[in-house]
Structure formats: C-alpha cells, structure tokens
Design brief:
The protein is an alpha/beta fold and 333 residues long. Helix content is 31%, strand content 17%. The strands form 2 sheets. The chain has a 10-stranded mixed beta sheet with strand order 1-8-2-3-7-4-6-5-9-10, sandwiched between helices. It has 11 helices and 14 strands. It has 2 domains: 218 residues, Alpha-Beta Complex (DHBP synthase), CATH 3.90.870; 85 residues, Rossmann fold, CATH 3.40.50.11030. Helix 1 crosses helix 5 and helix 2 packs across helix 10. The structure holds threonylcarbamoyladenylate (TXA) and magnesium ion.
C-alpha cells in the first residue's frame, strides 16, 4: 500500500531549507532538527499530508500531534492562550515546552492532526533551522518525532534515515540535537497540568507559574473528574474525541433516522437513501479516509441524528488506526 519514496538528504543551508519548504508546501513529509529531537513534519492544515505522516510512522493509532510555529503571534492564531499559557510562553518560548490549549474557532489545523479534539498542542522550537523553516513555510507544521512507531526518537539525521528511508521525502541534516528528549507538555485548560515530562524541568515551570503544577492526569484516578471536560490526556491515555451520536460499526444497512458514514465505491442502495450520508473515501483510499475521519464524524454529529451507521473499513495500512478510533468512538460511555 505504501509507495516507496526516494528520501533526499540535504544540509541545513539556505538551499536545503528552501527545498524543505517547497516540499512541505506541496504536501510532502520532511524530517528536520529541533532542539529536542528530529521531527517528521507535514503541513498541519493539509489533512491528506497528515494522513500520509501517520502512515509513514506506522502508527496504529491517531495520537494528536503538536503544531509547530515560529513565534508566539503565530501560536495565538491557532489556540486561545489564557494567562497561565501566556506566562509560560513568555518564559520558555522558543524552547522545549509544548502547551495544550483550546483551539481558536478558525484554527486551520486539520481535524486529523488534533485527533478531533477541541484543543491544540503548540510549540515554538528553539533551533535556528526549525525556526527558519517554519517562518518560510508560513503555515503550522505538525511534527511527531521522526521515527517509526515504537522505535526511539532520533537525535541525528542518520537515525532518521535508518528508520524512515523510502517512507518520507526529505531529511534536513542539522547535526545532532541538543536536548535529546522530547518537549515537556503542559495543558493550560483550566489549571495548568503536566501531561508529559520532557526537556524543560517541572521545577522551572512551577517557578514561572508561582505555584505547583497539577498532577499528571491519571486516567484511573481522574476518571470522574476528566469525564465532563475536554480530554487532556496524551494519546496514550483513554480520553479521546467522541461524537454525541451512537456509532454502529460494520453496518450494511441503515435504520430509519440513522446517518451513514460510508467507505468505498460500493454503498448499498438502501444506505444511500439515509437522511445524511458522507463517504470517507468514495475511491476506497485509506489515506483519504483518514484525512476525512474526524471532520465527517463531526459533520454527521451536527445533523442531530441519534445514531450513525458506519460501513466496514479494511483493517490494513491506516485502516488499523481508523478502526481504533471508530471503536473508541463507539464504546459505551
Ligand atoms: O520535542 C517534541 O515535542 C517533539 C519534537 C519533534 O517537536 N515532538 C513530539 O511529538 O514529541 P509526538 O507526536 O511524539 O508527541 C506529541 C504528544 C503526544 O503524547 C500527544 O498525545 C500529545 O503530544 N498531544 C498532542 N496534542 C494533544 C492534545 N490536544 N491534548 C493532549 N495531548 C496532546
Ligand atoms: Mg514520539
């Protein structure tokens, strides 16, 4: 299913960065250095590019991704920074700190990149190559660590090449990264909360805030507390986007009043007469289906139906991650 790409390695000079910018603008996948680890970048506003990014990493799940921007002004266009977020941004950006904040109503980051959540993770990396790249692209760039799913994060271009050769378009070689571990993630929705320890120590954050950080969200301990607020948890926790409507999976028909989430060219005629129907990919393309997944679910949910009949999606390539999300969305709550 995955096409073998020619992976170009360029140096982090003006020509190399220009090639990377052009590649990203065309929907390509570009690995680049940040001060923490190498990131695998894609245009955050291009759902199909983001879907290809998940496929290249071989992630069996759609974890939400971090949107990288060149400065605070660009971050404010994507997310709503409250007083605590502003304080942390002023103290530590650029630097190894990611802030999870509510999305702006007109935030252009694709639903797939935020895994359908109403929040967005923002980061301004402290690396001259990353910043030049982000400034020149002029759009937010999502970038998980540039490794295959389950492998360790790369701190050198050679690590990226070894892991992702043939699966991505370009690697910008900016030498070894300084910090070597991922950014610290703090959610600033309500009280600031540490979601992932990382390159910026907790103590520095607490000093800037003038108070201790709330404990890391623990899915078991906080089950009740978390249930009626925006899901804050990193992808490895149980919280996730859930539509209001009930999902009925592997459907081959539609009950009266049900909406239909279709897949592929062969939609049964009975389903075609549903009150509302959206097709994840009429051509049966799993990359296109992934790019449409969360936005289609949201759109059908807005129809006010009580249930959505979802056609079967093949369990191969990105289908595994699509089915994972559909199953979570269908789970009783
Ligand atoms: O240092 C870093 O942060 C690196 C470099 C490349 O910038 N990037 C990185 O990305 O570590 P990734 O995808 O490996 O980790 C992103 C983490 C995941 O645990 C994800 O669940 C969490 O951020 N995350 C992203 N958006 C979120 C959101 N809206 N709510 C909660 N967690 C979120
Ligand atoms: Mg990672």
């Amino acid at each position: 299913m995955t096409v073998e790409l020619t992976t170009r390695l360029v140096s982090a000079d003006p020509a190399g960065i220009a090639a990377a910018v052009q590649c990203l603008a065309r929907g390509g996948l570009v690995a680049f250095p940040t001060e923490t680890v190498y990131g695998l970048g894609a245009d955050a506003t291009d759902g199909a590019a983001v879907a290809r990014l998940y496929a290249a990493k071989g992630r069996p799940r759609f974890n939400p991704l971090i949107a990288h921007v060149p400065d605070l002004a660009a971050a404010r266009r994507l997310g709503v920074l409250g007083p605590q977020a502003e304080r942390l941004a002023h103290a530590f950006w650029p630097g190894p700190l990611t802030l999870v904040v509510p999305r702006q109503p007109d935030c252009p980051v694709s639903d797939l990149a935020t895994a359908g959540l109403d929040t967005v993770a923002l980061r301004v990396p402290d690396h001259p190559v990353a910043r030049r790249l982000l400034r020149d692209v002029g759009r937010p760039v999502v970038a998980p660590s540039a490794n295959r799913s389950g492998h360790v994060s790369p701190t050198e271009a050679a690590h990226v090449m070894a892991d992702l050769r043939g699966r991505i378009d370009l690697i910008v070689d900016g030498g070894p990264t300084k910090v070597g571990v991922e950014s610290t993630i703090v959610a600033c929705i309500g009280e600031a909360r540490l979601l992932r320890p990382g390159g910026l120590p907790r103590a520095a954050i607490e000093e800037a805030l003038g108070r201790p950080l709330a404990r890391t969200a623990d899915p078991a301990a906080n089950a009740g507390e978390m249930s009626d607020e925006a899901p804050l948890a990193p992808g490895m926790l149980a919280s996730h986007y859930a539509p209001r409507a009930h999902l009925r999976l592997r459907a081959t028909d539609a009950a009266p009043g049900e909406a239909v989430l279709a897949f592929g060219p062969h939609v049964p005629p009975q389903m075609q007469r549903a009150k509302a129907l959206l097709n994840l990919s009429p051509a049966g393309d799993l990359v296109e289906a992934a790019a449409n997944l969360f936005s289609h679910l949201r759109a059908l949910d807005r129809e006010g139906v009580t249930a959505i009949a979802v056609m079967a999606v093949p369990h191969e390539g990105l289908g595994e991650a699509i089915n994972d999300r559909l199953q979570r969305a269908a789970a009783p709550r």
